[in-house]
Amino acid sequence: MDRKTFLSFLGTGAAALAAASAGLGALDGKASAMSSTADHLFGFKTNKVSGYFDPIQPSKEDKLVLPKNFKYDVVAAFDDVINKAGEKFGQGADYNAYFPIKGSNTHGLLVTNHEYTNIFSLGTVVDGKMTADQIQKDLYYQGMSVIEVYRDEDGAWKMDTSSKYARRINGMTKFDFTGPAKGSTALGNATTAIGTFANCSGGVTLWNTVLSCEENYADTAATAKLPDTHYGWVVEVDPFDQSYLKKHTALGRFNHENTAMGIAADGRVVVYMGDDKKDACVYKFVSKGRYDKLKGRSNSALLEEGTLYVANLKSGKWLPVTIEGVKKVLSNEKYKNPYGISGTKEDLLKKFQSQADVVTFCHEAALLVGGTPTDRPEDIEISPFDNTVFICHTNNDIHGNIHGHITRIFEAGNDLGSVEFDFEIFAAGGRQSGFSSPDNLAFDSNGNLWVVTDISTSSHNKGVYKSFMNNGLFVIPTSGAGKGTALQFASGPVDAELTGPFFTPDEQTLFLSVQHPGEMTTDLNNPTSTWPHRFGDKIARCGVVAISGFKLG
Length: 553
What we know:
mainly beta, six-stranded mixed β-sheet, five-stranded antiparallel β-sheet
């Protein structure tokens, strides 16, 4: 695709075309005449990294490949020291969220999720059984990192290890439970939990905290002999307050991918969530109370009481996931187990006694009340312009959905609190689109959707995945002539997955995680990747990069 066609896809004018043709589109600090002035959910108002670029071709190299006129700085990588206490940056870098300090676009806190560990932190695990030391490392390197970052006078992003805020939150950190399951028998009467791990994606709240999602938690919990029901929740953290640590049970327990928060027409808070596994459902939580900006962080209490809904795509309805709904279904004399449910009716009646049981065993409860099993619903984002909701359905080989698709939900009356909706397939993965297995999403201020892909590492450059090569980052316009057309912005190193795209408010920087490079390594003496290729380093290190534009010559 040539530059002129690309710019027309983004709806830009002649002035923008001229600037881009001169190689200045991402650099001159001026938005095009056609740029939207609408405010993004997180405050995006300008068009910088999210501007004009020459789309790249897929790559198989052990590099992070970007378009010309863009560069990246490795801000933090696995095992880097992050503070004076000597704490280390975790592994499996995933979701990122940037929090300005004193409103700065070049100085703030960066929160990063850590999803899982591998051979580079644990060494070889013999016969699938971890040693005590490996179990401790497994718990330590998962969770979250809070680091302080800044852009220096030369335009390079760096980490400030003297920060008073920098810290690790991991499998040993104590959290308070909130909501209906707190203190319940389903949680072993617990009101607190030890640790968070399997932290995949997340979201930023309207009151400036982070929601982090526990996804594939089961193996870590079992290996460490921790209560299974204490994990699989949405956790809330305040980057600026070390004592603020919660797990919100009203949002349900399942393989959480991320959260996307918005406001209903009547002021209630709405949180969309995906359950990242095959034949799992799409959810939203609607608070009982209404958001009050003046209450600040106290609005967090809204996440403790409300209604959890599951999507039924056939009827276009959000169905309440409640104990009343579950009991009504099970009381029907003609009851038969729906797809995905096992066990007898008597077993299910015994299992579901209260709302605490419903949120704790949410996947089953959602299927019982009529939720539609879907194809790995991962990241969900709300459009900052029209309240439509975008969902990455990554793939599901059981149903032949090999390359996945992006679903777009239209809430009735354009109200996020509605109980009815319609939907479309916004973009489908495959040869025709140039991408496969969409995963995380982010919007820029022009309404373009930034999408990273998650082709399974074992499938890279094989079979029907050959043409896509390594996982990448794509830009998809959501309106105009190029609506739904994917344009590749980045390609990841060998075995890697790109995750957690997040812009600074002025969009001059895009933070992006490079997750599990070298994941297929079985011999530490012969790693499949050594990204980020630090001098003298012989292993691969996942990490977070800051992408920005720069002038050549």
